Amino acid sequence: MDIFNITEKPEIDESIEEYEYHSYEPIIRTDLNRLGEIRINIETQDLFTHPSERYLVFDCKLVKNADDTEYANADVITLTNNAMMHLFSNIKYQLSAQEMKVCFTLDKQQRCLGY
Hints:
Strand order of the largest sheet: 1-2
Oligomer: single chain
Strand content: 5-15%
Distance between the termini: 48 Å
Shape: elongated
Number of helices: 1
Mean pLDDT: 76
Largest sheet: 2 strands, antiparallel
Low-confidence stretches: none
């Protein structure tokens, strides 16, 4: 039996037929308006993750800076391109406490990538 046989046709594994998305929330949910770390842990599970297919969903309310009242549905507001990325100074992706990727200046990186 040859370990490395370049004359054989390669086998292509297409056994993964679909993706499932799971929701995770920050560990501490008391007040996300304060400065500090927001950590989302995904504990050991029987899952194969595909990091490039992950995304963040922001469920929030826009409030007026002067008096913290919510904007009405009829109010016209304008958000900058990639507005949510301006909320973070950096994002880290860690796997088993090993830093895999760190991104700083997220708003600029997103513009460069075309998102």
